[in-house]
Known about the structure:
Number of helices: 8
Largest sheet: 5 strands, parallel
CATH class: Alpha Beta
Order of helices and strands: EHEHEHHEEEHEHHH
Radius of gyration: 18 Å
Oligomer: single chain
Helix content: 40-55%
Amino acid sequence: MKVLIALSGGVDSSMSAKYLQDQGYSVVGCYMKLHGREDYHRHNIENVKKVCEFLGIETHVLDLQETFKKEVYDLFVNSYKDGITPNPCAHCNRLIKFGALWEFARSLGCDKIATGHYARIENGLIKSAIDETKDQSYFLANLDPQILPYIIFPLGDKLKVDIKAQASQIPQIASLASQKESSEICFVETTYIDVLKQHYNTNLPGIVRNS
């Protein structure tokens, strides 16, 4: 079975690719360019290529910047402008990572798609990961149910501490186990306020509502 794995250049997706290969899948790697931070992409693509070379798998770089800007970034900016708090990662997962990427996977003849998310799929439903400290099921809750049978989450039944420990024993992946983890929205370099300031004046009086 042929599987397209979304690779970010981090330890989670890299180890996911290895787990899939160890399980006998025919694995293809893909890095998605979603925004214009070229230094960010350059570093990550370098990591992705090293991992794919180590695993001996085909690698693709998919430029989805135009789609991402329209479907995720612009929505993020306009939502705050309208006084609404957006969830860009949830939109991205539905429309980009498990939307546009799945279309690309099918064009390559892949049977399934995989990512390094910490979540599980059981009985056609998304479930929380075994590692509750890393669970990402909330950000996947908006996925189209019809795509769930075609998704694999290799890390759903694993603990992050074990993944990092295993990665540290593999010379070609060891450096990824110790690099700083990203915890912010991918297109945000400092804070989301700095992003919004590029589009309109954020220093405005108003009422904070919880609705």
